[in-house]
Specification:
The chain is of the alpha+beta class. It is 24% helix and 33% strand. The strands form five sheets. Strands 13, 16, 17, 18, 19, 20, 21, 22, 23, 24, 26, 27 and 28 form a 13-stranded mixed sheet that branches. Strands 5-9-8-7-6-3-4-10-11 form a nine-stranded antiparallel sheet. A hairpin with a 5-residue loop joins strand 8 and strand 9. It starts with a helix and ends with a strand.
Length: 467
C-alpha cells in the first residue's frame, strides 16, 4: 500500500512538472522575440507577414465542458472561476492551431460513437468561418478553409498508449469534421489536457450537464450543454443568487466622482498622467493630451470611448474579436462585473463585437425595455476598424457587497422549455440557444435568474423558481 501511494505521488509530481514546464515555455519562447515580461501577446507577425494571434484571444468559449461519461455526470462544466479553466483554454487553443497547421484531415464524421470517450468540449458564442479561423492562426493552407463555419470543438487527447490526438469540429448546421495529429507534435498541451480532464472528472463539486448532441435532442438547432435533470422533475445542484441588484458607480447624491472615473478609464490612455478632465452637469469628459482619445461617463453609468485613428480596411473576424477582448479586459479588471463575448456584426464602419454583462458565471440579458432606454441591445459593444478599437460603449455597474444567499437550481431545462413553448403556442420550434441568465428589465429593480430561450431570433424568458 505504501508503495502504491508513493508511486501515485510520483505520477502526480511528474504531471505538475510537465504543466509548469509547458507554462514557462509559453511565457519565454512562444511568439516572443525579446522575452519581455511586459510583451503583449495579443498580436504577433509571422515570417510571411500575416497577422498571427494567440488562439485563446479569440477562442473564448460560451461553455467549456469535460466529458466524464458517468451515469450521474455526462459533462462537468468548467467555468472561468475554476482553477483548470485557463490552463485548459490555453492548451486547447494551441492544439487547435497546431492541428489545423500540421494535422491530417480525416473527413466528415458519420459515426459519432468514437467521440464518446474522455474529451474537452468548447462551445463558441458564435461560429467562425473556416477561412477566418485559419487566418487567425496564420495557417496558409488547410482543408479547414473550405469548412463553412465552426461553432464547437471537441478535443480527444491521446492517452499514453495512443499516437494520435483527435480534433472534431462541428459547424452551425450539425456537420462534424475530424482531424488528427501525431501526439508528439502537441506533446505538452496534450499532456496538460489529459491531466486537467482527469482533475475535472474527479471534482464532484462541479455541476453536471448533458449534451444536446449526445442525447439527440432534435429541438436544439446547435450543440449546447444543459444542466442535467436532478430527477423527479427537480433541477441540479447549480448554485445561484436568486436575484442581484447593483448601483451606478461613481455617482453619489447627484454628483459625479471625477477621481473615481479618472481611475476607471486611465487604462484606455497611453499616457494616463496627462489627461484633460472637464465636468458637466450630467457627464464627465476625459481626453488625451493630443485629443486623439476621448472618454465620456454620464449619470446613467454609460461609458463612451472614441479614438481618432487612421485605420482602414476590413478586419478578419478572429482578429477583431482578439483586439476587442484585449480592450474589454481593461474594464473587466476595474469593475465587479464581467463582460462576456456574445455576438458580432460586420458593417461598413467596421466590425462590432457585442458583450453581455455578467456576474458569477451568469450573463445579464437586456430585455426590450432596457434596450429602448439605453439604445443598446447588449451591455457593451466595441467597434474595431483595421487593427484599432475606434469606439467602445458600455453600461458600468457595481455589485453590492451583500447579496441574497445562494440557492440551488430547482427548475430543469425541460420544464422551462415546456412553459416557453406553451407561451409560443407551438412545439414545432427550433431552439437556437438556451441558457441561464439574469434579466435586466428595469433599472434599480432586482435582476432575477431566468431561463433564456432563443427561437427565431427572439428571446423568451422563464423565471427560475416560477413553475
Amino acid at each position: 500500500m505504501k508503495y502504491m501511494l508513493g508511486f501515485l505521488k510520483i505520477i502526480i509530481l511528474c504531471m505538475l512538472i510537465v504543466v509548469s514546464v509547458y507554462q514557462t515555455g509559453k511565457l519565454w519562447f512562444e511568439e516572443t522575440s525579446d522575452r519581455n515580461f511586459f510583451y503583449d501577446g495579443s498580436k504577433t507577425v509571422s515570417t510571411a507577414g500575416e497577422s498571427v494571434l494567440d488562439g485563446e484571444d479569440f477562442l473564448i468559449p460560451q461553455q467549456m465542458g469535460v466529458y466524464v461519461g458517468a451515469p450521474d455526470i455526462e459533462y462537468s462544466l468548467v467555468g472561468k472561476g475554476v482553477n483548470s479553466y485557463d490552463n485548459l483554454l490555453e492548451a486547447a487553443a494551441e492544439v487547435i492551431g497546431t492541428t489545423l497547421s500540421k494535422g491530417t484531415y480525416v473527413g466528415v464524421v458519420e459515426d459519432m460513437d468514437e467521440l464518446w470517450t474522455r474529451h474537452l468540449m468548447l462551445v463558441l458564442p458564435f461560429a467562425y468561418s473556416g477561412d477566418d479561423l485559419t487566418t487567425g492562426y496564420g495557417v496558409a493552407s488547410s482543408k479547414a478553409k473550405d469548412i463553412e463555419d465552426v461553432a464547437t470543438f471537441f478535443i480527444v487527447p491521446a492517452p499514453d498508449d495512443a499516437r494520435s490526438l483527435h480534433l472534431y469540429m462541428e459547424d452551425s448546421k450539425g456537420g462534424i469534421y475530424e482531424y488528427q495529429i501525431n501526439s508528439e507534435s502537441v506533446f505538452m498541451p496534450n499532456e496538460v489536457i489529459n491531466y486537467y480532464i482527469e482533475d475535472v472528472a474527479a471534482d464532484d463539486s462541479l455541476p453536471a450537464y448533458i449534451s444536446t448532441l449526445k442525447n439527440s435532442l432534435a429541438l436544439y438547432g446547435r450543440t449546447m450543454l444543459l444542466p442535467m435533470d436532478g430527477g423527479d422533475g427537480q433541477g441540479n445542484d447549480i448554485p445561484y443568487h436568486s436575484s442581484i441588484i447593483w448601483d451606478v458607480p461613481y455617482v453619489s447624491e447627484g454628483e459625479l466622482d471625477l477621481e473615481g472615473i479618472r481611475l476607471l478609464v486611465r487604462a484606455f490612455f497611453s499616457n494616463p498622467d496627462l489627461l484633460g478632465i472637464a465636468a458637466y452637469e450630467d457627464e464627465v469628459r476625459i481626453t488625451s493630451n493630443d485629443y486623439s482619445v476621448s472618454v465620456r461617463y454620464n449619470m446613467q453609468g454609460i461609458l463612451n470611448y472614441t479614438a481618432v485613428t487612421e485605420a482602414t480596411g476590413p478586419t478578419v473576424l478572429t482578429e477583431a474579436v482578439a483586439y476587442s477582448n484585449n480592450f474589454v479586459e481593461k474594464i473587466n479588471r476595474a469593475t465587479d462585473v464581467e463582460y462576456y463575448l456574445a455576438d458580432y456584426e460586420e458593417t461598413e464602419e467596421g466590425t462590432y463585437i457585442y458583450y453581455n454583462m455578467g456576474y458569477n458565471g451568469f450573463p445579464v440579458v437586456l430585455d426590450s425595455e432596457a434596450v429602448s432606454v439605453y439604445g443598446m441591445a447588449y451591455a457593451a459593444q466595441v467597434l474595431v476598424k483595421g487593427q484599432d478599437v475606434v469606439k467602445f460603449r458600455a453600461l458600468v455597474r457595481d455589485i453590492p457587497d451583500i447579496l441574497p444567499q445562494f440557492e440551488m437550481l430547482d427548475m430543469p431545462y425541460g420544464t422551462a422549455l415546456d412553459n416557453i413553448m406553451a407561451t409560443i403556442g407551438s412545439d414545432d420550434v427550433i431552439v437556437q440557444d438556451m441558457y441561464l441568465g439574469y434579466l435586466w428589465n428595469e433599472e434599480g429593480a432586482r435582476k432575477s435568474l431566468h431561463w433564456v430561450v432563443e427561437v427565431d431570433g427572439v428571446n423568451y424568458y422563464q423565471e427560475v423558481g416560477g413553475q
